[in-house]
Amino acid sequence: MTKVFINRDSFYDLLKENNLSIYQLSGKIGLAPSTIYRSIDPDNQKGVGGETIAKLSTGLGLNEAEFGKLFFYHSVLPKGNGKEASK
User: Fold this and answer.
1) C-alpha to C-alpha distance for 85 and 45, rounded to whole angstroms
2) pTM
3) Beta-ladder partners of 3
4) Which residues contact 75 (CB under 8 A, 6 or more apart)?
């Protein structure tokens, strides 16, 4: 199973470029700060969904072509135990 995750370093770089804190971004895009923090948690095994992807992209000024600047795909086992799936 392949899921979408957020590149933490890029996320913080984009916040800095846009002169935003997580709380400011939260207010700008209508996502709870806790949702954003969960999305960037390195132990997050759920990945991020389409609505979160769209809101973060918009809030950080990314267009479709820049998807890979913030997000990446990663294969995980279906039960989300964190182990990489066979390719």
Assistant:
1) 13
2) 0.82
3) 74
4) 1, 2, 3, 84, 85, 87
Taking only the tens of pLDDT, the chain with its 87 residues reads 889 999 999 999 999 999 999 999 999 999 999 999 999 998 888 899 999 999 999 999 999 999 999 999 988 776 655 555 444
Cα angle vertex 71, ends 40, 87, to 5°? 105
Extract the tokens encoding 20: 């935003």
Does residue 38 contact residue 61 with C-beta atoms inside 8 Å?
A: no
Residues in the chain: 87
Structural contact between residues 47 and 57, judged by C-beta atoms closer than 8 angstroms:
no
